[in-house]
Automatic annotation (TrEMBL):
Entry keyword annotation includes ATP-binding: yes
Family label: Belongs to the ABC transporter superfamily.
Gene Ontology MF annotations: ATP binding; ATP hydrolysis activity
Keywords assigned: ATP-binding, Nucleotide-binding, Transport
Domain ABC transporter: 2-224
Protein name: Abc transporter
Classification via Pfam families: ABC_tran
Amino acid sequence: MLEVIDAQRRYRGGRGTGPVSLTVSAGEVLGVVGPNGAGKTTLFDALCGVGDLHAGIVRLDGRELGRRLPAELCGFLPEQSRLFPQLTALQACRFEAAMRRLEMEEDALGEHLTRFGCAGFRDTEVRRLSQGMTRRLGIACAFLGAPRVVVLDEPLNGLDVEGVLLFRRVLADYLDGGGMALMSSHILSVLDEVCERVILLKDGLVAATVDVPAGGAERAYLEVFGR
């Protein structure tokens, strides 16, 4: 189980996130929803070490980890790609493995790219990839090494239908293996399909935590934000 307790990162003027507390169980996707500026990206970035939490505790499977998830245990897909444009897709995957201290042979990296539909452009530089190809590569990097937790910020951005279907298959397999995920998406119907619970952020705070049967995410959003 992932536990985040009173996580907080605030900027001058009061923007940011927290204190936020949440839990995610093995095999679960917890949705994180809110309007622009609600603090979703700030929370995700801080948990994954892109900027520091100012307060809070992160626990994983009962072990206290301080204020962030260790890179070797966490795969991260940011909303905006942070892949180096001069690297090829294979080099980007290799770099991700090195940064997360994952020992993977070249053949294994190639097989991983194939699984995520990236084999056709493995030797193409990131700057020459389409938005959808770049997103697929980012997803491949996030799931590299079957991390204990994946944090997915708007994972469907730029994906075509084939990419969306591939993502759902990969996510289902990952959850069946006991993985856990935090996921934001502006497509609330997607969260209804993959999540059992959703937290709604407002001004950086948890306004509600709701179960999401069919249509539940949209109804909860309208109740909290009145739009």
